[in-house]
Amino acid sequence: MTDLPSDLPRLRTLETFLDLLLAEVREAIAARERREAERRRGVRARPVPPQWILELGLNRDAPPVQVHIGGCWNAGKRSKGVTQVEARQALSEGVKACGACQPESALGFVDG
What we know:
Blueprint: H1 8-45, E1 52-55, E2 66-69, E3 79-82, H2 84-92, E4 96-97, H3 103-106
Parallel strand pairs: 2-4
Antiparallel strand pairs: 1-2, 1-3
């Protein structure tokens, strides 16, 4: 057995300390469970990424810059999700295809 104090006042002090410590541990556990539940809710509520991305020019009047497959790491910050039809139309109108994700292959465009 552990070496506990033999007198009642010190045992009561130890009991109070352990009660406070246990309350802190329980609060830390509850906080962690709340954060984990919030993280799971965030994952479930995350919108589905678009299948196709059109990278836009520097201003609203500039033509689009590139077409990407959805989730491409190379897509710029100024981009928007588009449909497959819009992605095909952009490529057929001369918008550059991303060299990293190669959307022209996925959309059935053939070289030459």
